[in-house]
Amino acid sequence: MPETLPPAVDLFDVERLQLTEGDEPRLSPADEAARDRVWEKAVQANPGLFDGPVVACAGLEHTGPGVLSLSWVGVTYRHYALRRVPGATALPSLFVNVLQPTDDGRVLVARMSSSTAAPGRWQLPGGSVEPPQAGEGLVESDLAAQAARELFEELGLDAGAEVLRLWAATRGENGSVGLTYLAPALPEPAVRAAFAAAAADERGHGREPELDDIVLVGSPRELKYLSGPHADYLEPLVRRFTDQLER
């Protein structure tokens, strides 16, 4: 069973993930039209929005000790505009993230830059899950590879998918489901140097880095000193990691 944590965040231990493809819910013509209107208005406000392919979560169930069964559906970002349509239901989003510790027992948390959809939010490095190629299924190794890619693109840390361990799952705001991978511990100077180089490379190409700051925290209590919003899963995951270190 998941551990229920405030504010309405479920935290699951997970050692094995069972993935099955589900069907996207059928929309009424009225809900479909309302979704498109909301999406088009959002694009007018932020032309950087892209209606690309993404994976949503159609179901999540703890089926045994350490076993998590997840049903997934391929949609596009437009689907989540349904959250702003009265009476309509959007499938929860599915994302991967990485808990990157340092060799002194602290955890890296990162702040989203002002150009992102969540400016100033503190979270773990990660991103939405992308669907597999047409005709292929989604497997756990795909998710680990995506988590490794996010870690490299956002922090410049080149950890291969084979060294990342599926460590936890969370279900929080809007029912959004996150799969958290644990990376091997690294020295603080190596982490900071990699992040600085990755950010400089992005700016050198005329792009704003997705993350504009990183901080290392040694306990969930330290999170309260980070000004700005926090991802709802952040405190429970940091607490779980530090609790395990103390055992």
Mean pLDDT: 92
Give start-end ranges of low-pLDDT stretches.
Answer: none
Strand content: 25-35%
CATH-defined superfamily = Nucleoside Triphosphate Pyrophosphohydrolase
CATH topology: Nucleoside Triphosphate Pyrophosphohydrolase
Kindly provide the name of the CATH class.
Alpha Beta
The number of helical runs is 4
Helix fraction?
25-40%
Describe it for me?
It is a single chain. This protein has helices at 29-45, 140-155, 188-204, 234-246; strands at residues 3-5, 9-13, 16-21, 53-64, 67-76, 94-99, 107-112, 122-123, 126-128, 165-171, 177-182, 211-217. The protein is of the alpha+beta class and 247 residues long. It has a six-stranded mixed sheet, sandwiched between helices. It has a three-stranded mixed sheet with strand order 3-5-4, with no helix packed on it.
Keywords for this entry:
globular, three-stranded mixed β-sheet, six-stranded mixed β-sheet, 12 strands, Nucleoside Triphosphate Pyrophosphohydrolase, alpha+beta, 247 residues
Topology of this structure?
Elements: E1 3-5, E2 9-13, E3 16-21, H1 29-45, E4 53-64, E5 67-76, E6 94-99, E7 107-112, E8 122-123, E9 126-128, H2 140-155, E10 165-171, E11 177-182, H3 188-204, E12 211-217, H4 234-246
Parallel strand pairs: 3-5, 6-11
Antiparallel strand pairs: 1-2, 2-10, 4-5, 6-9, 7-8, 7-12, 10-11
What is this structure, in a nutshell?
The chain is an alpha+beta fold and 247 residues long. The protein has helices at 29-45, 140-155, 188-204, 234-246; strands at residues 3-5, 9-13, 16-21, 53-64, 67-76, 94-99, 107-112, 122-123, 126-128, 165-171, 177-182, 211-217.
